[in-house]
Design a protein that fits this description.
The complex is a heterodimer of chains A (604) and B (358). With 604 residues, chain A is an alpha+beta fold. In chain A, 26% of the residues lie in helices and 33% in strands. Chain A has 14 helices and 33 strands. In chain A, the strands form seven sheets. In chain A, strands 11-10-16-7-8-15-12-13 form an eight-stranded antiparallel sheet. Chain A has a six-stranded mixed sheet with strand order 2-3-1-4-5-6, sandwiched between helices. Chain B has 358 residues and is an alpha/beta fold. In chain B, 38% of the residues lie in helices and 19% in strands. Chain B has 15 helices and 14 strands. Chain B has helices at residues 27-43, 65-73, 94-102, 117-123, 129-141, 160-173, 190-196, 210-226, 245-251, 278-282, 296-299, 312-317, 319-328, 342-346, 348-353; strands at residues 3-8, 52-57, 82-87, 107-113, 146-153, 177-182, 230-233, 236-238, 256-259, 264-266, 271-273, 288-290, 331-334, 337-340. In chain B, strands 7-8-6-5-4-3-2-1-9 form a nine-stranded mixed sheet, sandwiched between helices. A three-stranded antiparallel sheet of chain B has the order 10-11-12, with no helix packed on it. Chain B has a two-stranded antiparallel sheet with strand order 13-14. In chain B, helix 1 links the parallel strand 1 and strand 2. In chain B, helix 6 (160-173) packs parallel to helix 8 (210-226). Chain B is globular. The A-B interface holds A 526-527, 548-562, 564-565, 567-569, 571-572, 575 and B 5, 7, 20, 54, 56, 180-182, 184, 210-211, 213-215, 217, 234-235, 247, 249-250, 256, 258, 262-264, 266, 271, 273, 290, 293, 296, 299-300, 328, 330, 345-350, 352-353, 356.
Chain lengths: 604, 358
Amino acid sequence: MDREFIRNFSIIAHIDHGKSTLADRLLEVTGALSKREMMEQVLDTMDLERERGITIKAHAVRLNYRADDGNLYQLNLIDTPGHVDFSYEVSRSLQACEGALLVVDASQGVEAQTLANTYLALHHNLEIIPVINKIDLPSAEPERIREQIETVIGLDARDAVLTSAKQGIGVHEILEAIVHLVPPPKGSPDAPLRALIFDSWFDSYRGVIILVRVVDGRLRLKQKIRLWSNGQVFEVEGLGYQAPKATPCDELAAGEVGFLSANIKTVSDAKIGDTIVDHEAPAAEPLPGFEEIKPMVFAGLYPVESHEHGLLRDALEKLRLNDSAFNFEPEHSVALGFGFRCGFLGLLHLEIVQERLEREFDIDLITTAPGVRYRVTNTVGEVIEVTSPTKFPDPSEIKQIEEPIIDATVITREEYLGGILKLLEEKRGVQKKFEYIGGGRVMLTYELPLNEIVLDFYDRLKSCSRGYASLDYHLSGYRVSSMVKLDVLVAGEPVDALSIIVHKEFAFERGKDLISRLRRLIPRQMFEVALQAAIGNKIVARENISAMRKNVLAKCYGGDISRKRKLLEKQKEGKKRMKRVGRVEIPQEAFLAVLKVGPVEEGE
Amino acid sequence: MPGVYLAYPFCAQKCTYCNFASGVYPRAVEARYLDALEAQIRTCQWEWMPETVYLGGGTPSGMAPEGLRRLLEIIPGRPWAEATIEAAPGTITAEKARAWAACGINRVSLGVQSFVTKEIRRTGRKHTAQTVADEIGTLRDADIGNVNIDLIAGLSGQTEASWRESLDWIERLAPAHVSVYMLEVDEDSRLGKEILNGGARYGAGETPGDDRTAGLYEMAVERLDALGIARYEISNFARAGSESRHNLKYWKLEPYAGFGADAHSFDGRVRKQNPESVEEYLSGTGQVLDPPHDDERFFVGLRLMAGIRPEPEEWRRFEQPIRRFLDAGLLETEGGVLRLTGRGVLLSNEVFQEFLTP
């Protein structure tokens, strides 16, 4: 198609501001799917995952739209994940577009993540069309939100489209705005091929499927292509686009969006942000912006049942086929046995992987406390990167430790400021900006150690703002910090899986809380058990679990030996689920104690 | 020689700590039950002559003497070496005692539980210490001198001082046999539910914890021993020669036949359980079988203070746990005998688990 009639756009929205509903509506109005299909399809994708060919909320859906000017346009809706963990992927998706719909809830207003993604879009010179959604709700205040978009983001919102995706109001106006405001793609079909990879996934029949935006030149079936970053050469075996059903084609030309398969074995070969060029006549330069993404958050994953170790490894390998952003390496814990140290983009990413392992592979997991990547300079002057407490050098060999720092943006309502400022303070935050953004809302910019947000920050933020605070962050650098390794000793034996890296100032408090939590979680044993928290050789907290006094079955009702056996077997079975460290049986919950911060609460 | 167990799961009221399938039923159900029980006994092919009979409950002392006579009449082997009936204090009259003796009963097990009125009331019972004293006299008059008294350590409101009072009564009444159970708070009992819900009925809030209950139990062990009533099994204490011959069969893996709801039988190999509830029993639900196990000698036999004599093969197979428990002071060994220590008794489940064969 003539590039004049192509429009590539994405939708930027905060969770629940109506992105999916709007996307569905656009599909429906352009006739891509009937209302009835809509329902069926949406339900399907929940279960089938995107591998199965038709993805609706797709990553890239082609819509054919006959505009009021009488011309037929090809609109490519490129969907992006919205979470801060995936900001690199978001930026690559945005790079594939010329425009974006900024969808803001007419009552809720601008949120931190929307803001961050909008800035990303502006950075890529995208034309942004403000859309104020949910205007049908009684609490809607479109005029106030319009003003907020102007003051907070600095966008001209005079022509913001007022919609209710749910009611179908304003959908036509949005399509017209896309056609008239979003510029057609630049780039030349006659230049050497340059195509941007903005997503990829593994399909067990066809290998890796790559979503591409052709920037220059043409991508053809049977063409020999080369991936810029690793120089690997493949032959294009499948080419097509989603409309939203997978539709094969022979060629994708400059400006177009689609998918290709080329018998690529793993997603880590087709990296997001990489450039595809022609093998015979390669372009001179790749597209800008490619980065190797590095995990930021690390945790140990262990099978509850130690014999499931092999199963876990297979599952991790399978997941990695589809998700090159996370990595893992074998790790051994004295307490938990054989497991894996895994790196993730962020906490949500960790949760996704954890959930997929448990749900899709049916493996019960113990996850150790998430941590970050520290830069440790030892006394010899070498700099090593440490992502696991067990690998932390002895304090006597450490010259200095640097920890990762983030720039965090929090948007909230004025009434919750008190609690949030206190929380940020407590998490060693340094305030950089404090702005009123209208409508009783405040935007805070803070410098925070990443280490402080990987544990309970989200939950705390949510609870002190009743959910009315949004957060966005990006890594801004490293800073020298007094971090220490806090060890836990049970009956004199260090339990490696309970070690955490913590700021010196908090070590005493964290140690005390952790020990008192453990005292409640570890059942009494046949002897007294000492619980200690230590930094190096220095004990900072101690409690004892007194010896079990009685575990005896008294009554024998009419010779009921079978019942006695069952009770004993049940007790024995319960112990199997525990991990034995030295002489002490430690239940799984105890290993989760490190995930909690703060004093033990009532009823815990 | 084997034993016979008859279950009579009817009570005048349900005790607050009770989690058994016994309770209060309409009279008509009881009559049907006795008929079914009689029928079950009649179907039995006696391949051996019973040596002991045990009427457990429920509250068998609440049974009409005529009904009891009918049941015992069809059990062979009279006079039995030991024929026990469980009795709730406050249900024994001179007439009843004579009737019991007449149909072969020669031992009564009294469910006293405590001699302290406050504690007794909280269990839902109505007797007093004096009732017990009077009834033991009544039984003696009917020539039933072999009496067991049940006590429970860990009842609500129980203190070291009040427990001493109960033990003083044991000294005064001088029974041949005493059973001391540690209260197991069961969530299916009224008391258990109350404790779970944080309520105050039945003195739920004043129920001693595990540690104190263990202390009370050890107090009893010591006191009874001083009275010449020695512990021969985890919960059973007797003067020399007065050990319960029937209960010993359980621990020594000797056979017994059980009749009635939730009654258990053991033929020396296979264990069988009758349906638990009266309703299921009456509707003719079948027995549940527990196939033979070769590890019972340990977790059952070790309950006896005399201990067991493991085979050479067992010493080898269980070398590791035996070593561990000897070191921890939970087991002791002497001349090829293995037995629990005093501390081992209280932690016996920890020990027994290691001897189960998977």
